[in-house]
Structure formats: structure tokens, C-alpha cells
Amino acid sequence: MGDPVVHFEINGPDDELVAKFYSELFGWHTESMPEPPYTTIDTHGGAGINGGIAKADRPYSTIYVGSDDLQGRLDRAGALGASTTVPVTDIPNVGAFAQFADPDGNLIGLFKPGGGEQPGVSTGSNPPVTWFEIYGKEPEPLWQFYRELFGWTIKEQTGEGFVYGEVDTGAGQGINGGITANPMKQPGIAIWAESEDQQGYLDRAVELGGTAIMPPTEMSGGLKIAMFADPQGTFCGVYSYKQ
């Protein structure tokens, strides 16, 4: 069994702007916490995972992977070529977290819940976050890194100009995702919300100060995707899948 992806996070210099943008775009419910400063997100999407918004020097998104042994995962990540960016840190009444940079520089979080039941995604019809993507300079080395670190199963898909690793965490909870290279061959992480109204959300994102990156595009196997950048430049995708 692999480690699950249990939380997403959108970071940037203007956390209030980000919270307002996603609340107005997707209807996600946000709540600010004073200590430590943080904004929680309950998507009210009825599926997927919840997230948060944190203030940071630069805009980026990340995912948090659940584990009962945070220090062990940090040590193993270091042995595989990563570097610790945030040591194991307690969050009163919540649990503990840590963060590392993978060999390509992607910041990945680790989370261990504290005592008591953790709140899940509330019921509702908003777009849920049900997929993640990790981008690397070359995806193949990252496939092996995450296999060895988290025990993920990664299905390799290659073709002419196409290299994609479909991730099944094998955890039976959280969300699955992919590891690939974006056109710029630059590291990054994108969260993906699920909805069939991709054009509507793309148009609304632009109205709210975002930038359209990819129009709704039909892919193979019943997959349809679109992508935008929020006002701070963080990528977010909207997708639907019909078998």
C-alpha cells in the first residue's frame, strides 16, 4: 500500500487574493485561521480532497502526502536526492507536517494527523479536486523517485512527443495523479478540479483576473482538459472523463 495524497495547497504573496479568486470561481468555502496564518479550503465538492492557502514569497501549488513516519520519509527522500525545506513541525490540535524539495525542485508536503477524526470534503456540487500533476525536467527519474519514496504504482505511457506517468497511490483514499514534463520542461505542480463545464470556468477565471492557458481540448480515452493560471500565475486545470 502506498502513501495517499490527502491535501492540496495554493501559495503566494497575496493569500487573500487567492482565497477570493477560488471562492468566486469554484464556490469553494474558505476560512481564515490567525495562528498560524492559514486559510482552509472545503471545496464542498462531495469527493476528492480539501486544501489550503498559505502566504509565500512566490506563487506555487503543492500536495501533501499522508504518513505516520514524517522523519522517516524525509530521511528516505534525502537519500534519494531530495532536500528538506521544512523539518517536522507540530500544528497544535491538528497534527504535524514537513516539506521537501524533490530532485527537480518541486516542493512536496508531508502530513500526519493528530488525534481525532479529520474533517473531510463536505457534500455539494462544486468542482472537486480529484487529480494532481507533478512536472519535472525529465519525468522518468521522478517516476522512480516517487515509486521508491511513497510506494506509488506508476503506469508509464510514452508515444511520439508524449511521456506520462499515471500515478495510482494504492492507498484507497485521497486522490491519484500524474507525473510528466510540461512544455517548458520546468518543475511545478498543478491541481485539477473536475467539471464538464470547462469553458464556463475558463471564461470565469479570466473575468476574475486569471489567464487562459489551454482551451477545452479533447484527449484520447474520453478525457477532456482545460487549464488556466490564477491572478498570481499558479496553474490549475479543469477536466472531465467519460469512459
What do you see in this structure?
The chain has 243 residues and is α+β, with helices and mostly antiparallel strands. It has helices at residues 15-26, 70-79, 139-150, 198-207; strands at 5-12, 29-33, 38-42, 51-55, 60-66, 83-91, 95-101, 107-113, 129-135, 153-159, 162-168, 176-180, 188-194, 211-218, 223-229, 235-241. It folds into two domains: 5-113, 2,3-Dihydroxybiphenyl 1,2-Dioxygenase, domain 1, CATH 3.10.180.10; 132-241, 2,3-Dihydroxybiphenyl 1,2-Dioxygenase, domain 1 (Roll). A hairpin with an 8-residue loop joins β3 and β4. The model has no long low-confidence stretch (mean pLDDT 94).
Q: Can you tag this structure with a few keywords?
A:
243 residues, alpha+beta, 2,3-Dihydroxybiphenyl 1,2-Dioxygenase, domain 1, 2 domains, 8-stranded mixed sheet, 4 helices, 18% helix, 44% strand
Helix and strand topology:
Blueprint: E1 5-12, H1 15-26, E2 29-33, E3 38-42, E4 51-55, E5 60-66, H2 70-79, E6 83-91, E7 95-101, E8 107-113, E9 129-135, H3 139-150, E10 153-159, E11 162-168, E12 176-180, E13 188-194, H4 198-207, E14 211-218, E15 223-229, E16 235-241
Parallel strand pairs: 1-4, 5-8, 9-12, 13-16
Antiparallel strand pairs: 1-5, 2-3, 3-4, 6-7, 7-8, 9-13, 10-11, 11-12, 14-15, 15-16
